[in-house]
Amino acid sequence: MSETNLKPLNWTPNPDIGYTVYRRQDGGMNYTFTDVSKETLSHWRGFSLEHLLDSDRLTRNLYDIRKVSKIPPEAIKVAVELANDPSARNIRLAVVVTEDLARKTIEEIAALINPGGLEMAIFTDMDEAENWLNRPLTQLV
How many separate domains does the chain show? Predict the structure, then answer.
């Protein structure tokens, strides 16, 4: 997908929230979280719901949460809500973690996602996550 064909990201950097995001060359998004504070979760939820509204194609997203050591119940609730949105069925999602606690929590979230929803996998290596994301999207359908 060329740079001119990418959907707008509508992202403005904000030093008061604990994540950044940029558009991937394949049209998906890369998120990097440094915290999961209430402000961060609220912003992430709004930003993600806005982008799910016009989700019109199979896409790949990567969540890098290696800097997050503890995932509070509020974050689990938001993640499950977003993952169960009907538009999320068009998403292949790689989550990159380092902490065992974070991995276990992401596995709990995956167990709460409706069958037939997004395709998700957990990694500790960024290259492995990218390789998994880069498989042909036709495998999603």
Answer: 1
* SS3 state of residue 92: strand
Q: Are 124 and 83 in contact (CB under 8 A)?
A: no
CB atoms under 10 Å from CB of 40, counted, come to 20
Edge-to-edge strand list for the sheet holding 19-23: 19-23, 29-33, 59-64, 91-96, 119-123
Closest by alpha carbon to 42, among 14, 23, 64, 17?
A: 17
Write out pLDDT tens, residues 56-105.
667 899 999 999 988 999 999 999 998 888 877 778 899 999 877 788 88
In whole angstroms, give the CA distance from residue 10 to residue 47. Answer: 9
The domain that holds 75 is classified in CATH as 3.30.750.24
| Domain range enclosing 94 | 3-140
CA distance 14 to 56: 27
Cα gap 38→74, rounded to integer Å: 8
Structure tokens, 71: 């995932």
At residue 60, φ and ψ (nearest 5 deg) are -120, 130
The pTM for the full model equals 0.87
